[in-house]
Write a structure and sequence with these properties.
With 396 residues, this protein is of the alpha/beta class. It is built from 15 helices and twelve strands. The strands form three sheets. Strands 3-4-5-8-9-10-11-12 form an eight-stranded parallel barrel, surrounded by five helices. Strands 1-2 form a two-stranded antiparallel sheet.
Length: 396
């Protein structure tokens, strides 16, 4: 079942049912240009057998960055570097999609000149880093739509095979969807139809730029998991709207910086038993759409993956962090070489440091950097060193 191909509504075919979900690489130049290491890294994953590989979140505006080492795609100045990246990642008949994103209020203040959101609602923690955003004007909203479309057109020109719109995890499009952040009273706020208008407009602009036969997917929260936020009912309505206009793939996730459910910090026993974090929700999503569904978060055994596919609950198995240490997972799962994905338990010995979710992010980012340098991942890599290295890199 894992080796069965999947044909998307636009006509494009993914060779198997295993997808690498987006993970930020944190290794672009300070100007957001992907170096040669991106080609090495994504070629390694392509040869590992993955069917669909989604890049780390690519910024559409250099003035608004999630982190200091994010890639940025906003003009054709360094298009040759992007072409090299795309060519390597497409080897072995791999679908390579760019994930386009704007961080909104989750932009780091020390690397961003422009902090904007649906409304001027600031993140309630680390305020020295996450500064109070300015509410976007009508002109600003239209500029965001244009930038998504422009970045998509550049990605297609560079040779990538699809686009994923990041509308989850509390980033800008997710901020517009959430009444917890979106306090607007104009056509971009209020009802779910208005709060989803930016996402729907971004999709329409990208579709106009790339054409009807080019894959466009979206990553969306099942819910924000916070009081007054984006709910499951909201999400099902947006999924229905996206399906009606022809989206090709919907990836389900959940949580925000305020409640990072997507990294599995808290799981009910029933979730642990079924492995995937959002499987209960995706069953509900399947009832409102025939659009291909992808679920990322928690899958660790081949049997659970196959069962979810055979039950028709989803169409693609999304895996993220295990790819950073075991890049050959698709080949190994399909051949039967492994039945269970290895899991690392990361600790520095300090509860304070271990309580910071970015420790995991940085450790897996270091594994990706090893592959970018044409080294093999190291599951025994020390946690303190990776924490300090990446913290300095983000500040610098």
């Amino acid at each position: 079942m894992l080796n069965k191909s999947l044909t998307l509504p636009c006509g494009r075919t993914i060779k198997n049912r295993i997808a690498k979900s987006a993970m930020s690489e944190y290794m672009a130049s300070k100007k957001g240009v992907p170096g040669e290491g991106f080609a090495h890294l994504y070629r390694r994953w392509a040869n590992g057998g993955v069917g669909l590989n989604i890049t780390g979140n690519i910024m559409i505006d250099s003035r608004s960055k999630e982190e200091g080492r994010n890639t940025v795609l906003e003009d054709n100045t360094n298009l040759e570097a992007w072409k090299g990246f795309a060519e390597a990642g497409k080897e072995n008949n791999t679908e390579l999609w760019v994930q386009l994103n704007h961080p909104g209020r989750q932009a780091r203040g020390h690397v961003s000149k422009r902090i904007v959101s649906a409304s001027d609602v600031q993140l309630p923690f680390m305020k020295a880093i996450f500064k109070k955003p300015k509410a976007l004007t009508e002109e600003g909203v239209l500029d965001i739509i244009h930038r998504f479309g422009n970045a998509a057109a550049l990605a297609k020109e560079a040779g990538f095979t699809g686009i994923q719109i990041h509308s989850a995890h509390g980033y800008l499009l997710s901020q517009f969807l959430s009444p917890h952040v979106n306090k607007r009273t104009d056509k971009w706020g209020g009802t779910i139809e208005n709060r989803s208008r930016l996402l729907m407009s971004v999709y329409a602009e990208i579709r106009k730029q790339v054409g009807s036969d080019f894959p466009i997917g979206v990553k969306i929260n099942s819910a924000d998991f916070q009081r007054g936020g984006f709910t499951e009912d909201d999400s099902l309505k947006v999924i229905t709207m996206l399906s009606e206009v022809g989206i090709d793939l919907i990836e389900i996730s959940g949580g925000t910086y305020e409640n990072p459910v997507m990294v599995g910090l808290e799981k009910k026993q029933s979730t642990k038993d079924r492995e995937a974090f959002f499987l209960d929700f995706i069953v509900k999503a399947r009832q409102v759409t025939d659009t291909p569904l992808m679920l990322t978060g928690g899958f660790r055994t081949k049997s659970a993956m196959v069962q979810a596919l055979e039950n028709g609950e989803l169409d693609l198995i999304g895996i993220a962090r295990p790819f950073a240490t075991y890049p050959d997972l698709p080949n190994q799962l399909i051949s039967g070489e492994i039945e269970k994905l290895p899991s690392e338990v990361l600790t520095t010995g300090s509860k304070l440091i271990d309580g910071i979710a970015v420790l995991d992010v940085y450790w897996y980012a270091d594994q990706m950097k090893r592959m970018a340098n044409q080294q093999e991942p190291d599951p025994n890599l020390g946690t303190w060193g990776t924490f300090f290295r990446n913290t300095r890199a983000q500040i610098g």
